[in-house]
Amino acid sequence: MLTKTIITRGNEKLDALLLSPVCTLLEYRNKGIASMLIRHSFSLAKDKGFKAVFLVGEPEYYNRFGFTSIVNFGIIDTGDIPTQYTMGLELEKGFLGTKGGTISIC
Fold first, then answer.
1. Do the strands 2-9 and 52-56 form a parallel or antiparallel pair, or are they unpaired?
2. Whole-angstrom distance, CA of residue 64 vs CA of residue 77
């Protein structure tokens, strides 16, 4: 599921998306279905004009899709989730840059 969120940079507001949850029935796990759904969601998001996706999840899993810690973009989550689990992905290269900002991931 993708839901809309906002990155705040001073007076600037940037639209982005949150990805969550990603799940498949047990009998369909380890068959690439979740990966296919995630990649397809990126395509749909780009078609709608979104340029970044964020999530809370296991880095070992989500790094394969290009997600990295939001710290790398200078973005701070307003919640109290450990930074290694708050990740972002630029759908348009350079969109987030390192300008910073805040986001509410959960």
1. unpaired
2. 22
